[in-house]
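Many introductory courses stop at the sequence. We go one step further.
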Amino acid sequence: MTATIITLTTRTLTTKTLATMEPQATRRPRLGKSSKVSGTRGARRLLHAVERSRLPPKAGAGKRDSLIGAIGSGKLLIVACCALLVCLPAVAEELPMLINHGVDGSWTNSKTTSQGVVIETVPSSNSLVAFWFTYSEAGGQREWYIGVGDINGAEAELIVYRVENGVFDQASATEEEEWGTARIKFSDCTHAQFDYESPMQGVDGSFSLERLLEDVSCAATLEQTHVTFVSRSNVWLDARGTWVFDGCVKLGPAESHGREEIRFGGATLSFDIDHFGTANCSGPVDVQSMSFDLIRLDKIEASLEGGKVIANRVLLQDKTSGELFRQILYFNSSADPNEMTHGKFDGALDAAGYPNELHDLLFFRQP
């Protein structure tokens, strides 16, 4: 299996692929640090101490929880999503590829002229449809295959059907027979790899694909794609805008935080949080802020209230310190207003070090 090492420059994140047994993002990066927290050791110590009790939310606030945990009296608030911290070397400059509307269209392999694949993405089901036009193994006979499957990050796993018995320019019934499976993996907006296997026909193989025409929108919308998440119902959700927690979280006998605003922009996440020197969100308030570059990697299954739901693995890079964190984000686009939450920083982790348990208290999208 291949995995993706996420690396950084002073302002941006990107990917570097290597062979490994782990899934994408094999290191556990940091989720930022306060300018008032001294170095990695101090941040590590403070992040381990974040699990706190909570006060009931304010009237009308609903069920909510904090993505941000206040660490120590008078210290800047730190994203309390991860407990282990790792800094990564700077080597690259671009956002990693994610499948988006810009991949729709015609793709071809220069070695097999007059053959190719037409691709269509379907946001309402987070799926990709591929129409594969080729020829029979013996040659001379045209073959038409349709692949349909789920999108996950930069690739899609397809079930492939062979379509037969159509009649030219007539509405006759066709027959669709399950032929095998395929995977399309995009390395960027103009290049992809197509792997296929058909136990029924006894064939398997792989070929490269390139866009037939020049890219118009894929690269231009890639930043937006990194804040377009897969929601609970497996549909795409553009998260740009403001999400609010309006309760009170007790952090200690003389510390708490209240209202939080999380804002998603083009491949960015920022927040403001009200910090109090009391246990019940009363008295003078210290509004503190942080800002991150954001990379969405892929989707996973995570635990929420005893069941399994779709969540999104993300990396966040502190714009000030350049440090990285791993986290998962969950969105419910069916709720009104839309809801989101994050992984438990003290819960179970997956093989790559990401949380796989979600808080059941939520942020709410603002109009």
